[in-house]
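Page 47, continued from p. 46.
Same chain as before, 283 aa.
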Amino acid sequence: MLDSAPAWSETIRSPLEQVIAERQRADELRQVGVAPTRSMLFTGAPGVGKTLAARWLAQQLGWPLLTLDLSAVMSSYLGKTGTNVRHVLDYAKGVQSVLLLDELDAIAKRRDDLGEVGELKRLVTVLLQEIDDWPQMGLLLAATNHPDLLDPAVWRRFDAVVEFPLPDDAVVAQLLRQLLGEELARDEALLTVLTAVMRGQSHAVITRDLMRARRTALVQRLKVEEALMGMVRERVGELRLEQRRQVGLALVQMGLSQRQVHEWTGMSRDTLRKVQRKGAVKS
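Result:
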């Protein structure tokens, strides 16, 4: 079970909540001849929350989540793969559930790819037909890390397509607040520092690193913020100059001396003083 709503941008949250609202008013939709959303395609890099979205939708709907990793079922005997996939699809169509077809690109490749054999192309055709005919009682989801590999016809078959980008600073900060706990989440300077060093990372990587810091704190008998600052010190040198200045100012606000900030960020003390004065004027 998910303890709280995941940290998503509005462009992700809105279409997912739309699906929930449609199911809550499905009878009204059918009365006017409109079917609720039956299928969605999730695209984005690994770790950005596609599988989490499937879990969240299943939880909100109160339906079981069935997952089929298409890359795992691919066989050198493609006829066997096709049979296995059809069995799963037939089962899922018979129960009210959320079915997630993960790694969709493992099967639904472009049919004009001359390197693919005829059996795989036929399997793609069957998959497209299944998407078209998916029953209203269930929800079919598909996820891919490589949308460029998909057959163009695949895109048209889904009722909705949701792109999962890497989280921006606002989403990173929201995720950090969820992971840090109420007390640490109130430390705005700490949030500023962590957001800067986590910029450009996926949800999965951010979660992994925060959990690693918690484990380090427990094993080494440190405060969690001490373990987090150790991680910051390791990464701050990889940031661009403007980001290091932002982190440097936040580190001073957290109580680090100018000498420490210089050692961590490489910023000269003169530069740091200028940044502090600039920050003081803005505040």
